[in-house]
């Protein structure tokens, strides 16, 4: 897994993510790619590495589809594990009790930034 450096980077515009929605983002730097996703849920914004703690695969199999059918929990498309959107904790499935890797974000002027203590020198490229 690629390490993230300490420079703050824009991930996306806040209004590009629906409330109760998510958006996949790939940070690219010198040939390395770091897949992430940003979640809006209950008036909060979170970012996670797009990697299931059980198998390491991306949670979504279609672009920007990370929630279950009821838009209450994040769901791994491979094996159906369910995660709390605000904590990343697995509440159902083979990785029960594990967590998604959360990345700190800041919201400024309508933009979602990867916070300085985790940001990447890469330029974001939306999928």
- Number of helices, counting only DSSP H or I runs of 4 residues or more: 0
Number of strands: 11
Highest CATH level, the class: Mainly Beta
**Measured on Cα atoms, how large is the radius of gyration?**
14 Å
Query: Distance between termini?
Result: 19 Å
Widest sheet: strand ordering: 8-4-3-2-11
Question: Which segments are poorly predicted (pLDDT under 50) over 5 or more consecutive residues?
Answer: 118-127
**What's the order of the H and E elements?**
EEEEEEEEEEE
Number of domains: 1
CATH superfamily: Rieske [2Fe-2S] iron-sulphur domain
Strand content: 35-45%
Structural class: mainly beta
Mean pLDDT figure? 88
Helix content: under 10%
CATH fold annotation: Rieske Iron-sulfur Protein
> What is the CATH architecture assignment?
3-layer Sandwich
Per the principal axes of the C-alpha atoms, what is the gross shape? globular
For the largest beta-sheet, the strand count, sense and barrel status come to:
5 strands, antiparallel
